[in-house]
Design goal:
Alpha-Beta Plaits, alpha/beta, binds phosphoenolpyruvate, binds manganese (II) ion, about 20% strand, elongated, 9-stranded parallel β-sheet, TIM Barrel, 15 strands
Length: about 350
């Protein structure tokens, strides 16, 4: 961190501030230039309050020269993190596809879709039991009952399950029952939830918030990791832009850039990104080409009657065709599908 002092600040004031910072365990180097002085801070500056420094009467400007995230930072962990879910690996050259309906709707539905996506090559089953809906009058998910149905589908197919948690009160239940805990886009900055999920032993799928920067997204991963859970999978799911023809805008740059900033795996959700079934395949292909470590795709056995997100759901047949293309393209990227 670098602090630029206002022109004319006395040496006494400069040394007073330097002393306060040294009390926080930092080393402070003072450079006196023509007209202004600069303080260079060395050490762990994560806890330094930049806002407090900025309002100091003698301070002109405060700049961070290193990122505020440490555990998720590739600088301190150059090799890719590989997240393991049973035998499935995600990251570090391993590519995995998660597929299933937006919401669990019935035993027959989830088992049928699970069997279909497994036959096409998916390695995890997705399905929402607790749904974060924009309207309180929309279907809210089957809750705990839906979770039990997901487990039936897991028993029938062997596919590990990924499902969204919306409240810390369910952490114990999710710890016991699910394989991957999903944090939805709307909860990316629900810091209490992130901290509780950080105490769990299950891998976490952390979706990017609707309007979040890469740094904010990685800082949310840092919340989870700072509590001890280092198994975080980042998921780009499209962001809010001025475009209204698509539900969201898939930010392709997020894949290479976030992988440069962090060692965590980055997967893509082409379903929520585009919001229409005809966009899923092209967006999925773009994601694979840009280096994604996996995909999470909504598949429904009867999209026209789906209780949630039918318009963006693939039929099992279309998903099967998508998987053929994904396999071909993944081979070109040098990644192994599992
Ligand atoms: C979902 O995966 O069904 C979902 C609600 O996604 P998001 O949080 O990305 O909107
Ligand atoms: Mn959905």
């Amino acid at each position: 961190m670098v602090i630029v002092m206002k022109p004319g600040t006395s040496q006494e004031e400069i040394h007073r501030l330097a002393g306060q910072l040294e009390e926080q365990g930092l080393k402070v180097g003072i450079t006196n230039g023509v007209g202004c002085s600069i303080l260079g801070l060395v050490g762990d500056t994560t806890a330094v309050d930049m806002d407090k420094l900025s309002i100091n009467d003698h301070v002109e400007r405060v700049m961070r020269v290193s990122e505020p995230y440490k555990r998720a930072n590739r600088k301190f962990h150059p090799e890719d993190t590989v997240v393991r879910v049973g035998d499935v690996k995600i990251g570090g050259g391993n590519f995995a596809v998660m597929a299933g309906p937006c919401s669990v709707e019935s035993e027959a539905q989830i088992i049928e879709v699970a069997e279909d996506v497994k036959a096409s090559g998916a390695s995890l089953l997705r399905g929402g039991a607790f749904k974060p809906r924009t309207s309180p009058y929309s279907f809210q998910g089957m809750g705990v009952e839906g979770l039990e149905l997901l487990l039936e589908a897991r028993a029938a197919t062997g596919l590990p399950v990924v499902t969204e948690i919306m409240s810390p009160k369910y952490c114990e239940l999710f710890e016991e029952k699910v394989d991957v805990v999903q944090i939805g886009a709307r909860n990316m900055q629900n810091f209490d939830l992130l901290k509780e999920v950080g105490k769990m032993s299950k891998p976490v799928l952390l979706k990017r918030g609707l309007s979040s920067t890469y740094e904010e997204w990685i800082m949310s991963a840092e919340y989870i990791m700072s509590e001890g859970n280092e198994n975080v999978i980042l998921c780009e799911r499209g962001i809010r832009t001025f475009e209204t023809a698509t539900r969201n805008t898939l930010d392709i740059s997020a894949i290479p850039e976030v992988k440069r900033m962090s060692h965590l795996p980055v997967i893509v959700d082409p379903s929520h990104s585009g919001g229409y079934y005809w966009l899923v395949e092209p967006l999925a292909m773009a994601a694979v080409a840009a280096g994604a470590d996996g995909l999470i795709v909504e598949v429904h056995n009867d999209p026209a009657c789906a209780k949630c997100d039918g318009q963006q759901s693939l039929t099992p047949k279309h998903f099967d065709q998508l998987m053929d293309k994904v396999r071909t393209l993944t081979a070109l990227t040098g990644k192994t599908i599992n």
